[in-house]
Amino acid sequence: xxxxxxxxxxxxxxxxxxxxxxxxxxxxxxxxxxxxxxxxxxxxxxxxxxxxxxxxxxxxxxxxxxxxxxxxxxxxxxxxxxxxxxxxxxxxxxxxxxxxxxxxxxxxxxxxxxxxxxxxxxxxxxxxx
Length: 129
What we know:
This protein is an alpha+beta fold. 44% of the residues lie in helices and 25% in strands.
């Protein structure tokens, strides 16, 4: 069973601990928000629903283009990035980052966060780590 309060705390630390991360949300593949730290003008439920739509479209594209299982969906806009990353079968991490984010560092931070989320959602799988 997921500890949603520790998940919320981990997201808050993720956003507060990185100058380039502006927001983050953990959502289920069917679009339900589990935890989020989003900018004030963003709706948690709409963001979760859009994340599920991105995943669905990304999976379809991955299949049609023979790219295999999707690990990450990356959206780059004029004012920043949106990165949707798998945290196992049960959840995805949406990370919102500023346009000045260094992509390599951002991807490393996201990878570390997805490992924490996976452990929080499936503690028996990861033991005491």
